[in-house]
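Side project, low priority. Logging it here so it doesn't get lost.
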Amino acid sequence: MSGKQLLIEISNGPKCPSCQCDTFDDWHHERGIKQVGLAIAGSLKCHGCGRFFGIHRYSDGEVHSTMWRKAA
């Protein structure tokens, strides 16, 4: 049976869970990023692999970057 697998990267800034690209300058100015309470959340397109992934930046500065992929 195939399903989905959650990929997650936890760092000080956005990091693509698929290709590990972490060169996102001025990411907080992207159109897909919104202020949600005390956190910042949204999605970014990786300029390394071209896939979209979700981000959630908490008030302590920690960023969780997440992506779903098909499990084998």
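Brief comment: The chain has a mean pLDDT of 91.
Revisit when time allows.
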